[in-house]
Every structure is written in structure tokens, then in C-alpha cells.
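FAQ
Q: What does a multi-component entry look like?
A: The components come first, one per line:
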Amino acid sequence: MGTTTTTVPSAGPLAGSRSFLSRLRQGDEIARMITFLFAASVVLVTVLLVFELWQGSDLSRHKFGFNFFRTSVWDPIFGQFGALPFIYGTLITAAVSLLIAVPLGIGAAIFLAELAPARVSDTLEFFIDLLAAVPSVIYGVLGIFIVVPLMRQYIQPALKHSLGFLPLFQGPAYGVGFLTAGVVLAIMVIPYIISVSREVLLSVPRDQREAALSLGATRWESTWKVVVPFARAGIFGSIFLALARALGETMAVTMVIGNTPTISASLFSPGYSIAAVIANEFTEAVGDLHTESLIELALVLFILTFILNGVARLLIVATSQRGSGMGNV
Amino acid sequence: MKRITGLLLVVLAFAGVLWADSALSITGAGATFPYPMYSKWFDEYHKKNANLEINYQSIGSGGGIRQVTEGTVDFGATDGPMNDEQIKAYQDKHGFAILHFPTVLGADVPTYNIPGVDVELSFTQEAIAGIFLGTITKWNDPAITGSNKGVSLPANDIVVVHRSEGSGTTYIWTDYLSKISDEWKTKVGKGASVNWPVGLGGKGNEGVTGTVKNTPNSIGYVELIYAIQNKMPYGRVKNSSGAFVKADLASVTAAAAAAVKNMPDDFRVSITDAPGKTAYPISSFTWLLVPAKFSDANKRDAIKGFVKWMLADGQNYTEALSYAKLPKEVVAKELKAIDKIQ
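Then the predicted structure of the entire assembly, as C-alpha cells:
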């Protein structure tokens, strides 16, 4: 989650005045070196990961070049590999899940942090943390046995009936597909949004609320116009954490998305995501090109996550410059 | 002090005995389809040979081929035989051959869910190929109704369900389709994962089962054992002699027996679309992949011993687990081939 590099200001001038040996004896230097090693290992792992993915996908990068991102045929038998449907599926399901999870999650967080009695809030928080810890395969099973039949029998026909003029809600209702995967992902990421946003809202200083109330604001006005904007950066952080989880989720998605590489405007259509195809095909990949194309897909997913994380950083910086005080989650 | 030393010596002696006892451990990896059979065999064999432990990881046929080629396991297992390219890669890397040993037989069956239809359907080659190619889209297509006189099939769209992950089951299914349909052969081909013209992907046998059970008007394919254990309806398939045959242990063994005459010396044979009136056409062997040379004589003898046992006593355990036995002729041929392991 929102890791930020903070230097401890007091360590600088004090540390400089003493000799290396005395610092070593007091343990500061040892602690510094050990923690530095830990921090460096994170960077090392990331670099190694990219290096391995880059090297491992050599064959497919040279064979397909940029076409890998533009073509949509995935044919292991005839050695044609295009990533577009998988990129599309990954982005669409993540977008659908955030569209559902963000309003719900933030709404719930506001209630828990600002409006609910502390006892209720803490009890519910316990359940939310529990939900966040449920393994994803269980959400997948839930998806297959509850969400998919519900979708096919009730939700998709209803959507088709009422909003069927939109290309989003056309085509046969299989139950599995982009929409179902998005809904299951939303269920999975909501606990993250609630849990982090609630903490952030709770840590908004009392003064802010009191100031708003003393100016004649109602409870809701102080919450919506003062507390929430103050905590904006942290709330964004929670959303991007949710996004990261949605992009990389494998098990639950593959169980409900339909596993068919298609690009369709309809959310009812079955699709495929990057993580799902890697999990499905890697163990049985025959031939180097197939394996390397899957590794290149992993690289694509990494880059995708990297870009979205960068955008998230920029958004947090941009919004915190506009007057909000809290930068970090 | 003395007592402690004495105790230590006793413990060490015990450890030494245990160590010597479980000295030989052989590892294998590969196909998931025969895993229940293999784990039963390895367990039974361990009971008879307490000092030999065989560990098997069911990571999938592709993984089995890869690991045995890389030399990280002592033997591999696969549902689809290694192709010439893979065999050559193995030979080039190790300087000796990799041998195929058929162990048991399995079959794929078409399973379906059509509301209002609870009879056993009969499928012609044209019907199966057409459905999976997407050229036959409705259940009341003449290609399907023609072989199912008296069954009223609805005018609904067919929902095709296939495996999403690479699997031996898919290899057998697409191998069959490639044999009976030229269009399938040129457009799709055979393999553990293919570019499906139509359909939804379900993860694993259970994913396909779940999707078929949940989706009206759907058709999918699963391993015979899986269909039997889950009491799913599955259809008869027309074989190359023109008879509609239901998959069971006898008809699967019949398919293997029909292929015996043409069995090549390396056992890499596909028995889909096999000749013979009683042969079920979507059947297949599953193989152990054993290196032709072992540097460790103990391991070599242990593996040879196991394969011999598997071909004799081991075959008696198959039917309890719904796997079909190897035909006698194949067993005889394999017993000779064991000598190739050196």
C-alpha cells in the first residue's frame, strides 16, 4: 500500500557529530545497515522480476514486436499470439469493479468513521477485515454458485429489458462474463476501500470538524465538505490499492469470466484476463513460443500495474497540493 | 555423561537404520488425469517395497514433459505423447532417448444439459465437429436430430463449453476432432490448449461440469471417470464402423485392442477414431515417460521393477477407479520394452 519514503529528520545532524565506531557500538549503524538491506531487497526483487520477464519473453517480443499489443488471435497450435483481448478484459473487469466498489466502499467508510457509534463501527470493522482476508478461490466459488446463476436468471435479463438499447447490455446472457467478473471483483475489493478509507477518515484532526461545525455547518456538511476533502489523498490511496488487487486477481476471475479471448462492447460477453490466461495455460504450455508469450503477458501486466500506480501517485500529489493536508495512507 | 553418550549412540544407530531404509526416493511429475490411479499404485507399491518411495506431482502433461526434459524429475507422465520435436530436443540434451510406457486408458465424453431432454443422445462425427466449430448453432439442427429420431430437441442456441486451461482431456478431444473433420484440422488443430472457434471456458473438469450444469442448452466434454462419478448425462458417439457406442471401460479397452495391430515400437499411438464395431472413438492411452538411461543403477532397477509390477498386478487396481485396463497384447509388448531402460 501507499509506501512513501520518509527520512527521519532527527537522525541527520546528530549522527554526523559522532564517529562511525561509537555509532556502531550504540547499534545505530547496525540498525541502519540492516534496514537498508531490507529496503534494498525490495528494489532488487522488482528489478530482478522485470529482468527475468524481459529475458524470458525474448522470443515472443522479437517475433511479434508491437503487434503483440494490437492483434487479438491467441492460437497456441499455429503459434499466433496477440494480447489485446486479455488487456481489454483486465481493464474492463477492473473498471467495472471500481465503478461498483468505490461509491459503496467510500459510502460505508464515511458511515463507519463519521456517523456510526464507535461500538458499531469497531464491530463492523472486524467483519470487514475478516472479509479482506478471505482467500480469493472462495470468492470464485461464491461467484460460480451464487453470482453466475443470479446474473443469468435475474440481473442480466433485467438489465437487457431496461437498458438493452445500450451496446453494454446486449447479447445472450450466459451468466459468466465481464460484468460477473467485475461484480465478484467488486465484492473482493470493497473491504480494502472501506478499511483503509475508514482509518484515514478517523485520523482527520478533530479541529477540522469543530471548525466546520462552529461556522454553522451541519453534521453532513462538515463530513462531506471538510472531512472527506481533507482525507482525499488517503481515500485515493485505498482506491488504487483496490485497483491493484482487481488487476492482478486470478483465481476468482478465471472462475467467472468465461475464459474466451473476445473483445466486445457488451458486458454480458465472456472474456479473459491476463492473470487468468497465465494461470490457465502456463503449466501446459507446449513449445517455447507459447511459454514466452505468456511471460510477455506477465510483463504487460507488470507494466500496466506500473503505469496505473504512477498515475495514482500523480493524482495523489496533484490533489494534496490543492489544500489537503494528509498525503499518506 | 556416559549415559547420555550411550543414548546418543542408540539414537544415531536408529537414525542410521531409518536413513538406510528410506534411501531410495524417486520423483515424477506430469499428467493430472491418471493421478488417482498413480497415487494408488505408488502407495500399493510402497507397501510391498518399503525402502522405495515414489513421489508424483500432478502438474499437468506439459509440465511433465518439460520437467523430464530438463532432468528435474526421474520420470514424467503425459496424456498426449511427446511430438517428434520434443523427442529430438530430449535426445539432443541428454544423448539418449525418452521412452513411452502406456499405463491405463481414458476417454472423453460429450456431456450436455438440455431442458426437457433426459434421454441419451447420439452424436455423429458431423454433429460433434459442427457444434464445436460453431457451424451447427441450434439443437434442432438436422445433423443432430437425424441421429436422434423421436427426441424433440428445442430450437435453442447451443452453448459450447470447453476447458480453459491446457489439459490432456482437451488434447484427446481435439485429436479426435482433427481426425474426423478436415476443417477442424486446418482451422484449429490438436493440442492441450487451442484457439476455440466458439464457447465458454471452464476451469478444470469441475469448471466444465459446473458451467454445463448451470447453463441451459449447453454441451461440453469431460473425462469419462468424471462424468460417471458426477452422474452427468453423456451421449453415444458414432465410431468409424458406423455404430453408436457409449463410453465405458469395455468400449475403451476395445478401442485400444483395435489399435494393437498398428502399435509402433515407441508406443506413441493415438487411438481416437479407432476401428472396430465396439470401439469407443474418443479414447486414449496415458503414458509414463522414462529415460532410456539412468546413471544411478538403484533408481533404474527400481523404475524397471515398478513398471513390471504396474503391468502385471497393478492392472488389477484399475477398474475400481474407473480406468480401463491395457489390452494383453500391449502389456506383452511393454514387458519387452522394459529392457530398453539401461
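Q: Is there any commentary attached?
A: Sometimes. For this entry: Chain B has a mean pLDDT of 89.
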